[in-house]
Amino acid sequence: MPTTQKQKMLAGELYTAADAELQADLAAARDWMDEYNFTRGLGPAELNALLKKRLGAVGEESFIRPPFHVDYGFNIRLGRGVFLNFNCVILDVVQVDIGDGTQIGPGVQILTADHPRDPEVRAQGLEFGRPISIGKNVWIGAGALIMPGVTIGDGALVGAGSVVTRDVPAGMTVVGNPARPRPAK
After folding, report:
1. Catalytic residue from among 6, 65, 80, 115
2. 87 and 106 Cβ atoms separated by less than 8 Å
3. How many helices (H) and strands (E) does the chain have?
4. Residue 44: pLDDT band with limits 50, 70, 90
5. Mean pLDDT of all residues in the chain?
6. Which domains does the chain have, with CATH numbers?
7. Which of 64, 109, 117, 118 has a CA that sits 20 to 30 A from residue 130's CA?
8. Is residue 115 flagged as an active site residue?
9. What is the mean pLDDT of residues 60-81?
10. Distance between CA atoms of 148 and 136, rounded to whole angstroms?
11. Cα separation of 141 and 143, whole Å?
């Protein structure tokens, strides 16, 4: 049974982000983002090494163009050859898995953080997270939002600007707000 706020967060249970341990983790992530986002002249290998300092796992040949923003970083796992373009945000209060060969356009937000629907519980400063899983060889277009708890199957395509609120089966193309299967032509 999780007892600390961090353990509760990682388990997807209600927790308070104001906890001292979590605040220290957030501060460490901010320091890392300063290092990663303000490096000049580093090549892919050096940036990959910096990613490995903070993220939970980083596959070979994975590359993220700075600036890149995270809550904690340590809950993010990238497969081999993953690419994220400029200005991506991953709120990783729980696990985010991104499969081999997945490409993510600029300005995409991957959001595991969620909040209670009951306003009285929300007023207590409680929140929780729901993990996100993105399969292999997925393409996510610029400005898309991936909402808490979503799974995107291998080979799927998410159109630019789409808001993904439900699971996307393997090989499917979804577009729009909320994202829905693209009509057949």
Report:
1. 115
2. yes
3. 4, 20
4. confident
5. 95
6. 5-181 (2.160.10.10)
7. 64
8. yes
9. 96
10. 19
11. 6
